[in-house]
Amino acid sequence: MPLRDHFHRPVTKRAPWDALHGQWPAMIVIDLNRRLPPRYLATPRVHLGTSFEIDVAASEGDEVASSAPGAGGVNGGVATAVWAPPQPTLTAATAIPEQDEYEVLIHEDTELSGRLVAAIEIISPSNKDRPENRRTFVAKCATLLQQGVSVSIIDLVTTRRFNLYADLLDLLGQTDPSLIPEPAPLYAVTCRWRRDDAGNGTRNGNAWRFDSWAHALNVGHSLPTLPLWLATDFAVPLELEPTYEETCRVLRIA
Question: Is residue 65 part of a domain?
């Protein structure tokens, strides 16, 4: 069945785009967990807007420091002066980039505390609408790749023509001939970094290779199958078409 345009009528008259984005990760998870080896677990993650995660280690450290002898008269300690930092060199009114996240995360060891090995990112309009949002999303993908995580990006957003895969390549200093003469506004791609143990001319055999499997998408055409890398030499198929069609069926999108 063909890809629909979920950002314009007549599809939007039936279901908003975020209905697809909210349901599709769950369908991908159901499909993957039927096929993944037992030591891997796929989970959906949908987060809307900005969030902050406090550094628990830093918080606990602050509590220990504040209750330590000599930190402020506690337990008979000697009170010490509180350090006053200098004024900031820059203070500016700003808005925190709103990043909606629709993704599937695959961990090893079937626990969320296990090692993250792959991430599937479904692009939302907020990921593409402003330069700072695009930079934030691309930086996130680059960080995952640097940590050895395979990253798949699926972009069905027809209201913004920016190609975040091309932006990611630009950040990494790479080029993809398939993006010439102009990057496609809709696309699906899997990226990874892997160690090239053969060396290919390096002395210590520690060269790194960047691999990507990119497909331009078109409304009215079928979705591709991407490789989902769980290890350097082990991948499973990420079959987008059947999970997409099942999502549309569940949401009654013709």
Answer: no
Q: 114: part of which helix (H) or strand (E)?
A: none
Q: What are the CB-based long-range contacts (under 8 Å, 24+) for 196-205?
A: none
Rounded CA separation 201/40 (Å): 35
Determine, yes or no, domain membership for 180. yes
Domain count, the chain: 1
**How many C-beta atoms surround the C-beta of residue 92 within 10 A?**
5
Residue-wise DSSP of 163-226: -HHHHHHHHHT---GGG-SS--SSEEEEEEEEEETT-TT-SSS-EEEEEEEEEE--TTS---EE
pLDDT digits (tens, 9 = 90+) for 24-66: 999 999 999 999 999 999 999 998 875 444 333 333 344 434 4
DSSP 68: S
Q: What is the pTM of this model?
A: 0.81
Q: Mind listing the pLDDT tens digit for each residue in 203-214?
A: 455 588 999 999
